[in-house]
User: What shape does this take?
Amino acid sequence: MIDRIKTIQFYLSLGFTTEQIAGFLNCVLKYQEALCTEIKPLYEKKIRDLNIQIKQLLELRERLESRFHQIELHNSS
Assistant: This one.
């Protein structure tokens, strides 16, 4: 039972949902993670999703920094 809880906590820390974890948990607990074919596509999707989020956050930061500098220039005048 402790192994099950630690495994769930580990996958939650990687950003997987409880629904996703439920889909592969028994396989991971019974076999090695590398042998569970259903987990690889989830990793790939999670990485793609994170890359999209990172790109969006970087673009947002750039827009905020630009706006902030415009405000500072205006206040310096």
The mean pLDDT is 94. The chain is about 80% helix and 0% strand. The longest helix spans residues 40-76. The radius of gyration is 20 Å.
